[in-house]
Amino acid sequence: MIEIKNISKTFKNNKVLDGIDLTINQGDVVAIIGPSGTGKSTFLRCVDRLEKPETGTITIDGETQDLAHIHGKDLTELRKKTGMVFQNFNLFSKKTALQNVMEGLIVVKKMKKEEAERIARKQLKNVGLLDHANHYPRHMSGGQQQRVAIARALAMEPKLLLLDEPTSALDPELVGEVLDTIKKAANEHKSNLCRDTDQSDDACIRSGRTCKESKKT
């Protein structure tokens, strides 16, 4: 179980997040749904500490970290437990799909190249892209790039997978393949937190649950 408590964040005089709590059980897919400007991306970025909140804690497997003051080794260890997938993929353009998935395993987890490649190939197979292992991002569709990004995140074996509008940059006909990948990850007992602004994408949570935000701050 993952518990996120009392997340608060202010930009200038605008209180974007005010004491937000969320509990995620193993295998949950949670969709945070609401209009632009309600702090959904900011919440995810605070959880992964890409943004520094004024207050907030995260507890993973019974270990609690203060997100407002975490740094150094503790921050590195937290990020080993969380994976972030961005709406614009953020793949390395000069690396192949395989190299993109291997990168974190080698740089962050200090794995040997052979072991990193084995895991990367397994994750690419899981998202249906093993035959694209040697393709560069420019030779893949948006849906394929997003699936590589998900494979890259899952290769790190995160306890919590954060997805920031994972389908918003895709053509409508490519959305289904990414949503199916998210569902598969949840079925394999990963905890997933899915952020989505479009009510029509409720399908992405399937048997999960929603946290709705309807009022701009």
UniProtKB/TrEMBL annotation:
<dbReference type="InterPro" id="IPR003439">
    <property type="entry name" value="ABC_transporter-like_ATP-bd"/>
</dbReference>
<dbReference type="InterPro" id="IPR017871">
    <property type="entry name" value="ABC_transporter-like_CS"/>
</dbReference>
<dbReference type="InterPro" id="IPR050086">
    <property type="entry name" value="MetN_ABC_transporter-like"/>
</dbReference>
<dbReference type="GO" id="GO:0015424">
    <property type="term" value="F:ABC-type amino acid transporter activity"/>
</dbReference>
<dbReference type="GO" id="GO:0005886">
    <property type="term" value="C:plasma membrane"/>
</dbReference>
<dbReference type="InterPro" id="IPR027417">
    <property type="entry name" value="P-loop_NTPase"/>
</dbReference>
<dbReference type="GO" id="GO:0016887">
    <property type="term" value="F:ATP hydrolysis activity"/>
</dbReference>
<dbReference type="InterPro" id="IPR030679">
    <property type="entry name" value="ABC_ATPase_HisP-typ"/>
</dbReference>
<protein>
    <submittedName>
        <fullName>L-cystine import ATP-binding protein TcyN</fullName>
        <ecNumber>3.6.3.-</ecNumber>
    </submittedName>
</protein>
<dbReference type="GO" id="GO:0005524">
    <property type="term" value="F:ATP binding"/>
</dbReference>
<keyword id="KW-1003">Cell membrane</keyword>
<dbReference type="InterPro" id="IPR003593">
    <property type="entry name" value="AAA+_ATPase"/>
</dbReference>
<keyword id="KW-0472">Membrane</keyword>
<feature type="domain" description="ABC transporter">
    <location>
        <begin position="2"/>
        <end position="217"/>
    </location>
</feature>
<keyword id="KW-0547">Nucleotide-binding</keyword>
<keyword id="KW-0067">ATP-binding</keyword>
<keyword id="KW-0813">Transport</keyword>
<dbReference type="Pfam" id="PF00005">
    <property type="entry name" value="ABC_tran"/>
</dbReference>
<keyword id="KW-0378">Hydrolase</keyword>
